[in-house]
Amino acid sequence: MDVLDERQNGAPPMEIDEVVSVRDHEAFAAKNMPDLGHDVKDFQVFTWRLNNWKKLEKKLTSPEFDCGGHKWRILLFPFGNSNAPPNDTVSVYLDYGEPKKAPEGWHACAQFALVISNIHDPTVYTVSHAHHRFIAEECDWGFTRFSELRKLFNIQDGHSRPTIEEESADITVYVRVLEDPTGVLWHNFVNYDSKKETGFVGLKNQGATCYMNSLLQSLFCTNYFRKAVYQIPTEDDHPTESVALALQRVFYHLQTSDQPVGTTELTKSFGWKSLDSFLQHDVQEFNRVLQDKLESKMKGTKAEGAIAKLFVGKMKSYIKCVNVDYESSRIEEFNDIQLNVKDMKNLYESFKDYVAVEMLEGENKYQAEGLGLQDAKKGIIFQSFPPVLHLQLKRFEYDIQRDAMVKINDRHEFPFEIDLDEFLDSSADRSQPWVYKLHGVLVHSGDLHGGHYFALIKPDRETRWLKFDDDRVTPVTDKEVLEENYGGEALNGIPPSLQRNQVRTMKRFTNAYMLVYIRESAIDEILAPFTEDDTPTHLKRRLDEERLQNEAKKKEREEQHLFLTAKVITDETFSKHEGFDLASFDEKNWPPSDLPSFRVLKQETYATFKSRVAQHFNFPESQIRLWVLVNRQNKTVRPDTHISENEPALTVEPEPPPQSIMVFLKHFDTSKQTLYGIGKTYMPRTSKVGDLVAIINERMRWTPGTPLKLFEEIKPAMIELMKPKLSFAQSEIQDGDVICFQVDLPEKEIHDLESQGLYSNPVQFYDFLQNRVMIIFRPKFEEPNHDHPEFNLVLSKKQNYDTMSAKAGEFLRHDPIKLRFTTTHATNGSAKAVLKRSLNQSIAEIMAPTYINPTTTVILYEKLDVSIVELETKRSLKVIWTGIHNKEEATHPFLLPKTSSVYDLADHLAKLVTLTPGGTGKIRVFEISKDGKTQKEFTGSEMIGNIPDPVELYAEEIPQEELEADDSDKVISVFHFSNQLVRTHGIPFKFVLKRGEKFADTKKRLQARIGVSDKDLAKYRFALIQVSTFKQPSYIEDDDTIYEHQFAPEDALGLDHLDKSGKTRAGAGEKAIVIRG
Fold first, then answer.
1. Residue 733: which of 691, 670, 675 has the closest Cα?
2. CB atoms < 10 A from the CB of 903, how many?
3. Is there a contact between 405 and 397 (Cβ–Cβ < 8 Å)?
């Protein structure tokens, strides 16, 4: 019997002193069976009396009883269910009656309490409770150590009699069979099939990408969006380079696969390397960047405008005077709405807060154009909401006390349906109601520093709510959609009755951070069922072919144990082999030889195999003989003996003479510095080694009598010169041995070769082969291209830095002294340390320590304009020139003595850039602060050798206006950001504020300073950023005079506009999301 134990989810047995009778079913259940928060389908109590306890059998089952449409019984081991003595406990379980007769896939969720009580006094008892999902594999559940026998037979404290009296007792089971509306209550998810249970499949999580997975599932279930993505033409794209195609492929797999779908191709198409994927980004930012990318791909296609149609609404920011008829307003588009959670009870209150009117009165009156200071109302009102409304709940906020971002876990309720009519302007189109239905809830579980994301989605009107949690999709109840994601400090969702053992509240919280609502009047269009025609045929064809290939590969893998791989060495492969033996198999420093390979069924007869080989090489079967290779004790692999078969049928010509041996010949060519196989020959054992010379000269078509030297290749580190006068037998030559020859050179030629660093004999060359390694050279800062190629060199570990740089210089046609090399981390190929020429290390030292792959190493190179010797006294710097208009115009590299000052650097730069005619002629050199909001200006006298590395230097022309600013002007910092203050981009700059100037005029000067068009400027919003209050930015109207603000040193003006550079900074330590493909 499969006994599963044990108080997995039950409380310890309790000897109870409160007087409740086992026979008072309601009171007993209320006391001993906590409410688990699930609906009860049926509740039954069954009692079984046992007498003569000490004479009972070792295992007993009670009669069956019904509860919730299932048959149950008690399973009792009166002396314990333990094979080993002492048998001093009672084991008791709830057992599912006749599980074999139950329908396939049956399950029952039951909460139960097992009780042993006194037959005369039902208030004397021992009880334990638990809950369990009963399934065929786990059809009994209970307590192996329910109670010690002696405690049941003896009177316990507070009782007047024992539980088991007169060797008799009642065993009672209380059973609540619970409703399981989702079918997955307490499921262990072993062998769970998402597709079968829900019709949907999950997405695999590749690191911290579940924020991406939850959004992708939400977009996938927005059918209109999926159709639009499918309309982007991608026939000629490559999936790892095209976001559109990669997304189409993910969507198609989600549609058709029955297994979780991978997203590696998609993140590759974003240009994300491994690190980016593991940075948990903000889902809102990811959504915007992805949609911008797709929108640009949809231009000029059938799908053009789909994203704006689905997700874009309009809002109006206004200031309206109370006592005069004047209004200043501007209309903006939005893709999502950010709503406050803090101090808001529910979504309705958050919307009320968003459109709340601020009164400008008293000292804060509004300067209306031509009308002086006026009382006014300032606020936002919506003009229209999009059909698919993305609401971002502001769960992450800056906390001034802690000087850090924190997660807000306050309770915040949201409904299945909301009417947004009252938040719309009176002029809005009301021909259809503005009622929205909840379609998706994106949930974050955890704290600010990480955690887990999942999505709850209702795919259409008919389908129930589903939970998409990475690779698993499960049905959920309404309570799991709403109540469980409102937030609040609930104790991990456990009902209070089960909380007694919980010492402190959980530190991780689960709540909604993004809601997706769909306008009810648009649901049928947006969630219209998907048809076969909606999927592009090219995509279907391409993916179906891949699926067939994958299935074939899978089948091959599954049958692998039935096969072996036979590799065949032929005269032709031998002639191309440069290395030891007849081929390379598992040489430490070199990839294996590319040999003809045969997948052979282990049951296949030798005759069948031989005929396949013959057919492959186009030989008559009767003219080939196969030899078996063996691993010799000296670590070489050589032919040992031919496979015997029906000899008379063989007509291999010439038949090797009896008593002959087969030797293999290799030629070491000193002029070409190569070593290749020349074939084999049969020699009588008794003949002299010197007899080979004539045979070799004839085979090589050399002049008869050309003097040769012969070497035996005994093993990699043992290559020995042979004595021509000894016989093969005396030289201990046997079948399969390798003899290497070279033309015997005069001393002068030997000397010439060695002076050029070349090898003059096979012993040296074999030593090179034993130590050879392949080094891959990659450009350090550029993608490989014509001028900076990626290339390989084969070098010996014994060679040194100078040889390596000379050979790399020769390949690159670049002076070796002007090449700088950097080693890399074997795990990810990133730069490790610059190699110092002065050390002249050996290649072995440069490669060490290599735990991963001892044969290849990647070295990064830079082509310098100066020698690396000079670099030791000079500093190489790059300066990004931003001109007069705050735009990155060019990057200028400099190599200056380390003692130069920043002034000197500015002078050198002045000669390379074009300054404004009649301008100040002055250049400011600066860094950007970590948060991207201010310049860190150099005084000019700093020595460049002392500037810490790495550094990003910028330089700009100082404008006339700034130079001429007097005491009445204020010079402030200005920076660029996108939507949220932490998402800074571009280059901060300084700007002069004039006394009494209206912002409308300030804006014109700003426009001139940054050189943007009227069209672009219209998309900018301007905000005053006050560091002291850490407020949300306060946006500036044209009539404001910001000069009057009391500027603290860190206060700044923020320009809020979309980043087109792809260089957004995202707060210290975070990187902005960039999607490249």
1. 691
2. 15
3. yes
The percentage of residues in the chain with a pLDDT greater than 70, rounded to a whole number, is: 89
Of the candidates 509, 637, 523, 502, the residue with the CA atom closest to the CA atom of residue 577: 637
Q: Centre a 10 Å sphere on the Cβ of residue 787 and count the other Cβ atoms it contains.
A: 10
Alpha carbon 613 to chain centroid distance? 46
pLDDT of residue 500: 37
Q: For this structure, is 210 an active site residue? A: yes
Within a 10 A sphere around the Cβ of 840, how many other Cβ atoms? 14
CA dihedral sign of residues 231, 236, 242, 248: positive
**Going along 118-273, which residue ranges are E strands?**
125-134, 140-148, 169-178
Nearest to 31 by CA among 161, 119, 129: 129
User: Could you give the CA distance from residue 15 to residue 811 in angstroms, rounded to a whole number?
Assistant: 86
Tell me what percent of the residues of the chain surpass a pLDDT of 90: 30
Task: Note the pLDDT tens digit of each residue in 896-948.
Answer: 898 999 999 999 999 999 988 988 899 999 999 887 888 899 988 999 988 88
Cα 369 to Cα 319: distance, rounded to the nearest angstrom? 12
14-15-20 Cα angle (round to 5):
100
Name the helix (H) or strand (E) containing 1024.
strand 1021-1025
Strands (E) located in 561-626: 563-567, 597-601
Nearest by Cα to 855 from 794, 799, 805: 794
Catalytic residue selected from 38, 129, 444, 452? 452
**Residue 209 pLDDT level (bands cut at 50, 70, 90):** low
The encoded tokens of residue 590 equal 């070199």
What mean pLDDT value characterizes the chain? 84
Neighbours of 998 (CB within 10 A): 16
CB atoms within 10 A of CB 890: 11
Q: Which residue from 452, 463, 416, 451 is spatially nearest to 436, judged by alpha carbons?
A: 416
Residue 470 in tokens: 């990475």
User: Rounded CA gap, 923 and 553, in Å?
Assistant: 64
Token digits of residue 226: 């999926």
- Token pair in block for residue 878: 């790059």
Angle ∠(56,57,63) on CA atoms, nearest 5: 85
Four-point Cα dihedral 792, 793, 797, 802, nearest 10 = -120
SS3 946: helix
Alpha carbon distance 753, 750 (integer Å): 5
Helical segments of 142-203, H only: 149-153, 194-198
246 pLDDT band (50/70/90 cuts)?
Answer: confident
Q: Tell me the sheet residues that pair with 114.
A: 128, 173
Report the C-alpha gap between 479 and 413 in whole angstroms.
Answer: 12
CB 116 within 8 A of CB 147: yes
One of 67, 109, 210, 221 is an active-site residue; which one?
Answer: 210
State the DSSP code for 689.
Answer: G
109 annotated active-site: no
Cα(1062)–Cα(92) distance, integer angstroms? 66
C-alpha count within 13 angstroms, C-beta hemisphere, residue 781: 5
d(Cα 644, Cα 96) in Å, to the nearest integer? 65
SS3 per-residue string spanning 80-132: CCCCCCCCCEEEEEEEECCHHHCCCCCCEEEEEEEEEECCCCCCCEEEEEEEE
Alpha-carbon distance of 1061 to 839, in angstroms, equals 42
Please give the distance of CA 668 from its chain centroid, rounded to a whole number: 51
Amino acid found at 517: Y
Please check whether residue 1026 is in contact with residue 1048, taking contact to mean a CB–CB distance below 8 angstroms. Answer: yes
Distance CA 374, CA 325 (A): 11
Helix (H) or strand (E) holding 677: strand 674-684
Q: Tens digits of per-residue pLDDT, 997-1008?
A: 888 899 999 999
The most distant pair of C-alpha atoms in the chain lies apart, rounded to whole Å, by: 125
Structure tokens at 640: 């040992």
650 pLDDT more than 90? no
